[in-house]
Amino acid sequence: MLKVKESGQFKIEYKRCVERGLNMNLLKSIVATLAILAALPIKN
Fold it and tell me: For 6-19, how does the pLDDT look when each residue is reduced to its tens digit (9 = 90+)?
């Protein structure tokens, strides 16, 4: 499993997305999937 390191720019963008009310659970699940070196499912 890889360790996820958040950059300063990521933190700024993340905060902006939270303020806009976007679905952050979706982002967290994608980051977790990539951290375990699994492929993301293909979405149509």
Answer: 999 999 999 999 99
CA distances 39 to 5, 7, 12, 15, 22, Å, are 19, 23, 27, 26, 23
Most distant CA pair in the chain, distance: 32
Helices of type H across the chain: 8-20, 24-35
Contact of 4 with 38, CB cutoff 8 Å:
no
Each as own residue / partner, the long-range contacts of residues 2-5 (CB below 8 Å, 24 or more positions apart, any chain) are: 2/34, 2/35, 2/36, 2/37, 3/35, 4/31, 4/35
